[in-house]
Amino acid sequence: MDSQFPAASPEESNFGDSKLDPNQVVPLYHQIYLILRERIIEGHYDTKPLPGELVLAEQFNVSRVTMRRALQDLVKEGLVARGRGKGTFVKPRTESRNSSVGQSQLLSASAMRLQASGDSSDLQLITSKRILPPPDIATLLHLPSDAIVEKLIRIRQLDGQPVAHLTSFIPQDLSGRICRRRLREFPILVLLEEAGVKVAKARQTISARLADASVAYALGVPVGAPLLAISRVAYDENGRPVQVLKGLYRPDRYDYRIELSRKQAKGQSSWQHVNEVEFAFEMHQQDLTHF
User: What mean pLDDT value characterizes the chain?
Assistant: First the structure.
């Protein structure tokens, strides 16, 4: 049992501001998992054993069952290894990065380019139906409340694993021009452009939200897990909204990176981006440009 190991040092056992909130929708085990994950990534444990399961349970004031679930999630992510009588150890960084949460799961620019041939990335169509739009969607699409829109829910997969939950709303007159058979193969904006829609610009926001039950099931994450949330409205050359996208992405499989440079203006220095989005998110931005 890993509880036979000595208690952690004061530095290791001091979780400071990382207090659990039992009132959150996020389960306690997932809160613990996030705290330990951050400490592991920051190098607090290096390759030393983590405190024993019982010690950690006492530090977080939770049951051993809850603590064990959090540690199991760290094992699944490839960050730690556990052994009976040996304890819980942080995996060497190179090994961790080659694990299921490493390079094969963080989409890269080259991986996204493969989507055109269907070799690594594919789409699963979950829902396609015509509805009265929710008030916020009607406003974004510049439509009256009694207009009809098509709601499409798709799951993007990489190597058979879900990485994104994509909900699109399209005006009815435009959705009827889309080739239905190709919805499982191509981004929606590509299909709209093929149908003669000239997409000119988009407004996009990036935030975060927690996974509800249906999204959690679709993405294979716990209910309440944090997700990267993308909201985007695409416009044609006449300024008409042609699509509203609500995308939810697993943060363990997407990276958002921006290159910044320091600029002088009016006697003050400020950061300005050089390349909008690069590296692991380069493909992500390409993805978002087309969906």
Answer: 76
